[in-house]
Every structure is written in structure tokens, then in C-alpha cells.
Records
---
Amino acid sequence: MAPCRRCRWLLGLALGALAGATPPVTADEAGCGAADVGRGVIAAAAVPVGSGRPWLRLAAPVGTATGVGLAGIIVPRGLGVDDRRGFDRLAAAHVGTALRLMADKIELDRRRRLVALVGLPDGRLLQQELLEAGLAVSDGTLAACASTFSASESLARRGKRGIWATPTRLIVDDGTETPSLPDFLVLRGRIVSVGRSGRTTYLNFGRDRRTDMTVRLDDRIAADLAASGRRADGLVGVVVEARGWVEDRDGPLLQLPAASALALWDDGRW
């Protein structure tokens, strides 16, 4: 048995124990290669007041999990009241349906919610529905879902749906004053310089770090970027979009969560 197949089989046994069921099968492409945890009946959905991960309340526990956090997406603070109601309506359409839960690892938060992908009866993901409606944005953390989520999000961007009807509520361009931090944002701009300090790489969007945006990469993410043909030191002068949580660290600073959270901008199109 090939090592990667054995690893997936062992992961299946662990997730099967969580679900209290037989060992799960490998998920199909709609699940971005994740493994089945089990089936969960959705009782209700909730969105955070500010930017954050939306979550679902389960009608009955799946293993020890009483709820599900929707992996790979964020409902941004800038989403309007009407769109938040749209989120509730879309989620309500799935209440009472046994939906497929998928995850690569067992990750429960302090409220016993499992962070997972949620498969709909038609084989698509609930995450895809929310992204296509502009009611959520990809957080860039799931490399295996990057192309799937990007395609779904692009439909909302082109159709100016939801958050993308007024993208300035989410996107910070060069020279734009940042909102109150911390917050989840998309930083769009031209990289002016690249710096190194120890094992950390910095992508600078301006000359003054106290006022201009900076993206911080650890060595692992810098290596992943290089492996995808985007060496950090080759990005000077390139316009990019980087997404993640921005904090005020003597200036606005985004810790890039994964290489898939940075994309090149090509003539205003993805």
C-alpha cells in the first residue's frame, strides 16, 4: 500500500471514531479531497457580528461536536444587513437536511464545534453557495480548495453580489485608510519592496511601515510561494491581492495564513 493511501486510511479511522460510524470514505472533488466525518442535520445557522467564521448548529451531535464552523470562509464585517438576512435565508433552506461533513483533521473549538466542509445533497459545498452569492469570502487557508473557492468567488465578484457590490467594504487599495483593526481584509496593491528579518519575509506595499501595508510570511509559506513560481523577491513591482487578518503592529500588518491567500492581479482580472 502506498504511504499516502495508508495515511488517508488511518485518517479515515480517526474521523470514523469521531462520527461514531464505520470508517469514512474519501470525499470527492467537491470536498477538495477531504475525508468524510459523517452526516449532520442542520438546526440553525449563525453569522458573527463582526468579521468571522459562520457556523451551523446541529440538531444532534456528531461524535462530540454540537456545531460546525464553515471551513475556509469568512463572513466579513462589511456585509450589509440585507445580505446577512440573505445568508440566513440561504442557510434556512438546508435546515433539517442531513448534510455531509468533511475535514482533513479533527479540530473542535471551545464550544465543541467542528471546523469542516459541508457537502450539499447535490454534491456541491455550502461554502460554494455562500461564496457565489457574495455572502462570504474565501479566507485563503485551504490550498486544496483554492481553485474551487476562487471560481465560486469570481462569480460573485463579476456579478457584484453581496459584499462585492461595494468591495471597498472589504478591499483596501494603495493609499486607502484602513478601518479599525484587527479585521479580515483583502489587501490589493503593488509590492514596493521585499525585506527579510531572521526567518521572516516582509512584502512592503509602501515605504513607511507605520502607515503602509505590510504582509508577513514565515519560511514555510515563502517556500510554498516559491514552489508555485511566485518567489517573494520576484514580486517587487507586481500587483497582488493578499487576504487575511490585519492587525496594527506599529503599522497595518497581515500575517499571510497560506500561500493560497496571495494571488497575482492581471489587468484587473483573476
---
Amino acid sequence: MFIRNKDLKGLAIRATDGDLGKIEELYFDDETWGVRYFVVETGNWLSGRKVLVSPISIINVNYRDNVVDVAMTQKQVRNAPTIDLHRPVSRQHEAEYMVYYGYPYYWNGPYMWGGSDYPAQLSVPGTVARMAQAEIGNSQLRDSHLRTTAAVDGYHIEAKDGEIGHVKDFVIDDNAWAIRYLEVATSNWWPGKNVLLSPAWVERVSWEESKVFVAATREAIQTCPEFDPTMIITREYENRLYFHYGRPPYWIEEVKDETVLAGMAN
């Protein structure tokens, strides 16, 4: 299922023994565009401290009740390693977090979540999880590439031949917990049109210039299928979008990954 970042904000995070707080924003990895953490405002029970919750911990998402259930306890969260969210989250801090909760490193392995394309597969014992966990001792801790959705919201989109619109929101796949699309408002150039761009088409993000550079022309973006934020994103719509840009869709690569993982499990 797809959900916009704006609709995720404010959802309650519920531990196995009580509420943890509400989602304030997301940290994503600007290399793979995976959603690595929810930033959760804990409210009164933890003196308003903000904590990180990994999608690996998710048990269930109930949009009807606006609740995300996670396999964590309040005691675990209270005693978790402290991370200063006013500063960039370092890979060392991430490593401490992962070890504390017993999660494999997502940066070890060829897929979105290291040994898997989906975080749910890393939350239970299994071949993939054991394989990824075994790599922890040998991991080289590179720099983190974490950015918040709040920081990138509003960035200008720079096409191959000039600027066209700005980032309005993010469309998130709540199965892979990946940013599948940037919602771009192009009303600066012609009235009233929102479009979607895949992060796979992003060449780089310039934090100094507050710009996202994409491998597409302004004309291609201008003439692509329009996106209505109230619409349900169907596979038919996605096919039209990828066909318009002449790019292979993300699900083809995921099928290849699943085939490889199945072979490893056997």
C-alpha cells in the first residue's frame, strides 16, 4: 500500500505494553531511499524525549485507527542508546541502536534492507536474518546517508535543462518501507499540476543548493501522467508512468531479488 508522508505524520506508535508517542517525521537513506526510522515524539511518559523506531519492529499498521503496532516495550525504548537528533545521526550511533534491539545492519547486503528487500523479513529468525546478523562483526561502518523528510520538503527539482517545480511530499510503500516517489508540484511553471518522480531517476541531492537533480527533461516531467493526491496509485498508473519515462519499474528488480533470496534459502 502507498501512503503519503503527510498522512503518516501524527500516527500513534503503540508498543506491546502501551503507547510510545506519535510519528513526527521520517529519516530516509538518500542512497537507497529506504525509510530507516520514524522520529517519535514520546509526550509525557518519557518527558517529551524524541526516539527512533525502525520499520523492522513493525507488527501491524492500522490506518483506520491511526495506529502502528511495534514489537518493542516501553522499557526497551526508555533504556535505548540516546541519539542526539539535533545533530546528524552517525553510523556508529546506528550500529549501537541495531545491536541494542538485535537487528541486522541494513547497510550489509545487496538489497534495500541489507539481506532483504523488506524489513519484516529481518524481524524474525530465519536464513536471511541470520546471514545479515553474521556480517555485523565484519562490517565497515561507513558514513550514514540519513536525511529527514522535513529537511528535503520544498527542495527545488532541477531537470536536465533547468528548474521545474519543488518537492511537495513523499509517497511511501508501507511494505518495503521505501520512498517510491517524490510528489512534485510544478505550479511554478504551469498551473495546477502535480507529478510523481521515482527516486531511481534522481542523480543527486544538493544539500547546499536545496535542490534535487533528476535525469529527465522539463518536457518529460511536464507531459507525464498527472498525479492527484486523492487518487489510489494503481499498478496501471505506475505502468503508464514508467512507460512515459522509458524506465524499468522497481518491481522487476524486486522479483529478481526474491528469486535470488529463494535460491539462497534452499
---
Amino acid sequence: MNILVCISKTPDTTAKISFKNDSKEFNSDGVQFIMNPYDEWYALVRAIEIKEQVGGNVVALNVGGSDTEAIIRKALAIGADEAVRINAEPTDSMFTAFQIAEYAKSKGFDLIIVGKETIDYNGSELGAMLAEYLDLPYVSYASSLTLDGSKAIVQRDIEGGVEISELNLPCVISAAKGLAEQRIPNMKGIMMAKSKPLTVVEPVGFESKIQTIGFTVPPAKSSIKMVDPNDMDELVRLLSEEAKVL
């Protein structure tokens, strides 16, 4: 089983967010970056579990600069067999999906898993774009993934129930919470990661169709107003005039 897992770097959830260059670019000064949790906890770990069950090879792939290599090495420490870095700054989801697809076309992957979204952009776009570029079946937000011969059985939560899909391999899956349990790299894995192969690939030419106009931060939260529990008239007035819920 030859499995590709796409990983990305994201700001730590505690990072202070700001922008520069007329608010067109994220300000990374002083920001600590981590592997996107949906990629790490669910996509990567499930791929490793499948390899442990049926054998095979897990490749962790990142589109990014040399500053992402510490994150890539973490993927190797968790259990990926090899890693690839496409040497380009990811400008948008379509660019990233195109680069991954161009690399994956000739590699014979049986299964491609991505996190359902990154925690910075929350776009949930890359998996579908990647599947389209590769002309492969795709299921998003998978909470369960099992293999049955040449088929993948995928379960995902929907409103009021559970949806179960059966796909022919190869296919693309995006991983949601529940697909696997987080693994912490142990000392053996960390030491082995230093000797596992990390291949750097140059990007393929691509004309981006997306332009960043600018970023804005959410407005500051207003202060809390305390209302006497016996003053129902004031509560109704506030809900009607300020909260706008009535």
C-alpha cells in the first residue's frame, strides 16, 4: 500500500495574529509554527495505522520553503517512511493542489490523505482540488477509513446520521476528527527520522488565478453587560436593541 499524506505548517493556535505590507501578507515575526493538526493527528496517523496493518510505504509531502523541514522531520518521527518537500511558498489552495498533483501523477499512490482543512485558513478546498487534478474519487471529512481489497470504505458524520461510501482505489480522502488518535513521537522515532530520506523537488510552473486583496482581523469584542436577574425589562430591551435577537 503506497500512501501519500499531505502536511502543512500553520501558526500555533496561541500565536498573536497580525499582517504587514498593507495587510496583504501574514506577519510571521515571532510566530511559532506547528504541523497542521488535521494533517498530523488524523491523516498521518491513519496512514501509518494502515501501513502497520497491511504493509506498504507512507510518504509525507509538504509544499513550502526550507523553514518547514523541522515539521517534515516530525512527520518522519511519528512514522512516515520518507518525505518530500516541493520547494515553493504555497500562495493559495489551487497552487498547492496543482503542485501536489504534478508530483503524485507518476508515483502510483494507492491512497492520498489530507487534513480536512488547515486551522489558519479553514478553507477545506485542497482535497477536492487535488482529486480533480488527478481525476480520482474523493470523500471529505472522513471519520472512519478501512480498506477492503481494492476498495476504501469511508464513513463521515452528516446532519442527523452517518454516511458510508465505498470508493475504488486509488482515491483521495480528507481527514476529520475521529479518523485516528494522536501519536507523540518517541525517542526512537526522533532518532530514526534523522536518517530517513527527505527529497526536495522544484515546483512546476503555474499561473495563479487568485489575488490577495487584504486581510482583516475580527473587531475587538465589546465588554460584557451585567443585568440584574430581576430586571427583565432591561434584559428584553438589551436583547431587542443591542443584541438584535428579537
